[in-house]
Every structure is written in structure tokens, then in C-alpha cells.
């Protein structure tokens, strides 16, 4: 079945599981063969594996059994899940099962072969944190919330295990259903993630499946997309999820290779996810801003990606449970969605304007990246100040070397044009700043490598790499009339010299390696972009070329290590030069190895002319069976952006304080090449501009209009104009938007993209019918709800909320008021405050009273996002619908069961913009051809108080469940659209959020129609002004919306 690609394609599994290349299929088949042969292992092999398993299990149980990470799966109830998940984790490592009882683990005494075979060979060495923790556990813990005492842990464990089994069964059923509908296809690949992305990018650009990119470090195979021709490998994607590779590979490395793989049309729908668990810096909640190595507007402008929550000002997914105990765990889990920063602006045209930046300014900006990326090399600063624990960790967790700078510049070169110079100006400015930088002791040791990487990535060839007319000592041995600016150094390290790495890797791990080219008593140059392969150098059959014969056993074999790297010709010309394989110096590696290896931490050194160990070649050798690329094709190069004819061009402007330069504003130039516009300008026509979207401005004079789309959110009301009437152009200069200002997406906090599919941009999608309901009825079981929904607010927002009404009414604080009303809506829908009304009305006293009725069908767990959602029917009250709705409104009045949520100032306008997003996120129906959104070209349809913001396509759809069978609702549902309303959480890397632990306060709540009030403890200050309950006087209900408005004031 897996003998070859053709056999696999015709197998029963080949219709929904595929392989990107033949090599991956071969490796998978190898592992399958090992699994099948596992029961027949010799007694010695079984004893060895059993000893390894016992040793590791004993270590985990005794040293790491207090692992609290699995409790994260409970989301809302993470703290409650700590005790039972710790017990389950310990039992898992003791017995190998997740059974909640000892009886369930009886008879389980055989090793699982999938835990035994890996790239390292046959060894039992799973990660010490291994546990099946991918199951959302909130429903299992919710039932214990009413207990005032500590619940029985055994009962909690049993509930957790039952929940895991139920969810696994449901997932399997869902997968089978998708499989039956041919809706799923899984394509497998084995190799390094960054190399894979680079290869996909190259394949998509060149069309050549033989990419020349190595599969991974330590291996000689190259990526060749020679999988099935029936299903070619895709090279762009709607969604890319990188799990927590950021912790291990570095954020910049990931984004640089993944961003080109996102679909560009439409760009607004593509999203890239990153996750982190390991804290960085002094404040883990702000670590993201440290990881990007510059300001967010600068990063987004140059790389084309921005954290969506950063520009939105909120996150619809909760991580407040992480905020509560991140210090205790010394971990902080954060998931970030990266998107096109202008993608949420429906006014932005699909064809982007040409974006440029001043060449010299870009050199300064790039040095800012460099300075942050290699901050760990600033040893001089650390010598005069005692470094903190976080600073020491930063010095150890080195993710970048000079190759990353080359990749960064190449990425920018592919996206952005230059003004006032070319890439020679950029590179010269940048390299001069590197030369003048005195804060890094090893800065100049890496300078030659840095220059080489700029050349390899096709950015710029510095003078130090230009051909030198003076003869080199290697000219004769290479027998070449023309000396290349670079050569490949192929360095063989005997296995005995690697003893320090191979004896006990559990202590040393795999420290970062680099090569040094040294000239005695003068200088040394470090090269970090090395490629190691276990094996030996040999001559290719029927050829004089050097090849590498790879040891299939890898690190467990007997061969030495062949390390290759590119070096400039000039670094090889000095007599007596030597090459060394070294461990990169960090505080920990120096302390661990300096006594044995010396100050340079060199494991092996050889003279450059020692042909036993060193070969200097004009090409990088590949495997005996492979093809070596020639020197011209060693770089990963892409075509430069082609200028497109356009009347609009945009320049990113930079500014600086005392440090590096950052993007602070944009200048858009609009050239008018038609006579009427030119004449109007010459005649002195008044020119004005107004912001019409988060990233767009409308320029106008007389009858001439032009929409300008900027690459990043802007503050349009701070625009400046430059009008060149004789030259027939106008420039519109706008500053970039920052979080919490009045620009950018503050204008439309919940945009719905007005494209063919109508999708919400910054509020995640949900499937309501698959989300488990929260059991309502007993308020004591819902004590957790108030603090959770209250945790939307940052400390700043809590202060605004407690301030006087004048401050709250300011337009800049609209989102605070939205959160306040979402809190009130959620608490009212839950009945946690002792009363659950039949309907909830959104009321704006200054705009006519109630204009929206909400019927809460259910409160549901959003397990994947660790929050809750109000599953509701939204009924906008607008003039044309009132005659049909009045009888149903009368029923609500008669039942004395309506709650009014009073909003203030600009909040109702924001609600009308948000409601389409809350509808679209859960939509299961298709928009009709005559959809009002398509007819008017705008979403929402209106933000006026007595007009409808929603289209009619979804009316009376999705209300089949028993929760909707309420007699008083029958007249509303034909006019209702189903929506999913949920909290909008503050963003921890923008604002401080210690408010989740605010003290309790005492409040009063009332019940409609009784006049009674009760006093009880609330669990969060948000309950201080939660919900107003009221009756609609029958005498005021005549037949018009005006009558209703008067009655609710």
C-alpha cells in the first residue's frame, strides 16, 4: 500500500491522505514497518526500552508531576482544574493511561511503539509534559461550581475523563462525516518548518519542484515536491497555524517565511496564527511587543502583517485565565492572529497602491531591527549591571543570526519600493551603523557573515565581496581563472571530537553551533549559517565533484559530522588560516564548556589547507544521489516588485526620538492627469479630505473624488494637505493610528467585509449548534460568570467606567460602554442575578429609546476561545416593521418581563455596526441575490436609530431548537436574525489587566413589576450598574414606534 506514491494514491487512504514528496512517504513507511515489527523485538531491545521508560516515568512522577499546564484545557475553570489534572497527569505517567481509577489501568503493561521511534532512532524519550490535554474541559468542571467547599477530586477526575472520551468520539464522528462528504484532505510532510515554507515559496515562484532547500539541519536531502500529480502541492493558504514554534524558532523567522504563503486575493481573509508559552522580558504579557523588534506600525508596514487584536483594540477570544496565574506557572500562553493591517477596511480597493520608503531611512529602521535581534550580544552593557533572570534567559534563547537579517531585507525588497536611492544606499547606511556600533563585542566578528548574507539573498553585494584583483593563495589549488566572491567551506569533524555533545545530551542538550575562520594573532570571523550532515565526504561516481555520503543512523551512527558554510573569498586568503567548529558563547554555554574547550569553545580546529578535513569548493556538495547547485543558484532569490501604473503612490515616513527610526506617518500623492481636474486645481478649487474607513481617506474638490487606501490604520482627522496646483497633484499626509486613539478601527470596531461572502474580520466564527449550553436555573452555579465577563475590561477601562457620565460619554470611550452593555446583556440572559426576562431591549435615551430587542435563547460555552456566547435572536425595531411587531411587543408588556439596557452617547451607533458582525460570525445560511447589503454596498445598512442595520437574508432561520419555543416570541422570530454575542476582551500587550482580581462590591437589583429589591454580594464591580428592569405601560402602546419610544424613556 505504501510501496510508492502510485500505490498509495490508489489505496483506500490515498483519497484523503497524501504526501508532499516521496521522501516523506518513505520515512512514514519506515516508521510503520517499525510499529508492525515491534512485538517481535528481541528481549535485549525490550529490556532496554523498558528501562528507559521506567527511568523517564520515575523522573516525571518525582520531579515534574506538579505540571499545571493541562489545566489550561479547562479555560474558564483553569484554576478549578489544577488539582484533578495534576492527579490525572501523574497517573498517566505511572500507568500510561488516562483512566480515573486504578482499576481502569490494570493489565496495561505494553509500550506504545509510537512513543519509541523518532528521528533519534529507537528510544523511549517522549517530552516530559506529554499528556492528552487537547480536550476542552470546561463542561466537566462547570457542574462543580455550586460547591462552597473543595469538590471531591475523584469526582472531578471522572468527569474530566468522561468529557475527554465523549469529545474524542464526537470528533471521530465529525471526521467520518467530513470524509464521507470528501470535505477533508490531509497532506503530510516531514522536515523543518522554516525550510518547508521557504521551499513552498520558491516552488510557487519558480514552478520548479526541485527547490534545492535542505530538508532540515543534520540531513543532506533536499526538498523536492514530487508527490502525486493528481493533487499538486498548494503554495498559498487561507489559514496558517504555527502552533508554538515561535518559542523554539523565533517569531521573525516564522513570519518572514510564512507571510508570502498567505492568499493575497482576497488578502483580508487570510490569517496566520502564532502561539507562545515561554515568557520573554520582564513582563510576559507585553512580550509580543519585544518579539517584533520594532514598533507595530513599522513592522506591519514593512512585513505586511499585524496582530489583529492590536489594531482592533480588543480580542474576542479570552486568555484572562492566563493573566491570573502566569507568574505562578512561569508560563504565559498567548495565541495571536496576524493579518493584513488594512484587510478589515471594506473601502480599501483590492489593488494596493504602490508603497515606498526613503532608502536612507530604511537603513536606519533596519538597524533598529538588528539592535533588538542581537541584544543578547550586548555583553558590555551586562558587565556593568547585574542582569535579571529574564535578561539571562534572553541571552540563552538565541533565535537569530545574520542570515535572518538577509531574509528580512529580502522580504522587504519583495514588497516595497525605494525613493531617493536604491538598495545600495540602504545597505551602506545600515552597514555603516553596524560598523560604528560599539555595544557588541562580537559585532565585527560577524560582519563578514552579515555582508555575505546580503549577497546570498540578492539584496546587495558589498565591496568586501567584490572580486579582488590580487591573487589568492587558493587560486592554484582551485584552478579557476576567475575567482568567485565566495566559496563553500566543507569541514569534516571527527566523531571523537564531538564527544562533549554525544556523551550526555540530557545535560548539555544541543547548544548553538557556529564556525570560526581565524588568522593567528589577528582576527576571526564567525559564520552561523552552517549546515551539518552526519556522514563523510567522497567523490561522486564518474565525476570530480565532491559529494556527501550520509550516515542513515544520523547521530546514532558512527560517522563524523560534515559541516558546510559559505564564506567570502577575502576571508580565505590569509596564510595560516584555520577553521573551527565552536559552541556559540552564551552565559550558560560558557560556564558549562569553557574549562574543557577554551575561550572560543572550539570542539575541533583544522588548517584551511588540511585536505583531510577541509575542502574549499565553488559549490555546496549534496548527497551522492543528488545534484549540487552551481554557485549562481545557491541564493534564495525572488523578483523585485514591479511598479504598477497608478495615479496614487504612498511613501512611509519615519521619525525618531533618541533611538532608531520608525514609521510614524504616510504621504499619499495623487496625480491628476485629466484636464477638468487640472483646471480646477489651477483655478484654486478648495481641496478637502475626510476619513471614510480605518485605512482610507476620501480626497475631494468640486466634482472630483478619489479614495486613498493606506497600508495601515490612520488618524484621518489629523491629516495635512500639500497642494501642487501647477504640477497637478495633491499630497495627503496622515499619522499612523495607535491603540486607544480615535482613528483606525475605532471608526468601525466590528467590520464585516463587503465581499462575495460577507465575513466578519476581527470577531471569530462559531458554530452555535455544536456549542454546549451553559446550564441555567440555579444562580449559585453561575458565580463564575460575572467575574469572567467583567474581565473584558482593562484597568484603564475600569477607571473610565467608574468615572462621571461626561467622561463615559466621550466618543473615544465607546468601546468601554459596549463592553458594559455586553456584560449587562450576558448577566441578564443567564438569570444569574435572580431574574431572567423574556426579552432585552437596547435603549439609547437620546436617540428615541429602545431600537433593538434581543431574545436570548441560550448561553453557550465557546470552548476553543475560553469564553461564553449569548445565542440570541436580534430584532431591530424600525418604522416599516412596527405594525407587525406591536402585537408581540404588547405580549411582552403584559408579561412584565422585559429588561432595558441603557446605552449612552455613541454606543448605539457602535452597536449597529457590531450587530452584523455578531450575525455573520454564526451564519449558516447564504445571502440572497437581492441582499440589501449587495444592493446598497454598505454594512451595516444604517446606523440611524429607527432604521435597520441588518439585511433580511437570515430572518427566521435557525430557530428550530426547543429553546426558541416561547409563546411570547412567536411574533418576533419572523423578523429576527440569529446572532452570537460575546465579550470583547482587552488586549494584555496594550493595556494592564490586573482588574480581573478586583474586590467584591455590594449592589442592589430589582425585579420588574414587584418593586422589590434585594441586596447581595456581587463578584465584580461591573455589577454595580448592571441591568434596569421595567414595564411598558399598555396605555402608551398605540400603533407607532414613536409611542413605544416615549413609553420607555
The strand count comes to: 38
Residue ranges: pLDDT <50 for 5 or more in a row? 474-479, 997-1049
Structural class assignment:
alpha+beta
Largest sheet: 6 strands, mixed
The termini sit apart by 74 Å
Write down the overall geometry.
globular
Number of domains: 6
* Average of the residue pLDDT scores: 86
Q: How much helicity do the residues have?
A: 25-40%
Strand neighbour order, sheet with most strands: 12-11-22-23-28-27
Strand percent estimate: 15-25%
Number of helices: 32
The radius of gyration over CA amounts to: 32 Å
Would you summarize the structure shown here?
This protein is an alpha+beta fold and 1049 residues long. The protein has 32 helices and 38 strands. It has a six-stranded mixed β-sheet.
Q: Could you please describe the fold and organization of this structure?
A:
With 1049 residues, the chain is α+β, with helices and mostly antiparallel strands. It folds into 6 domains: 41-186, no CATH class; 236-344; 354-458, no CATH class; 472-633, no CATH class; 648-744, Immunoglobulin-like; 748-1047, no CATH class. A 6-stranded mixed beta sheet has the order 12-11-22-23-28-27. It has a 6-stranded mixed beta sheet with strand order 35-33-32-31-34-38. α7 packs parallel to α9 (251-258) and α14 (359-373) packs across α18.
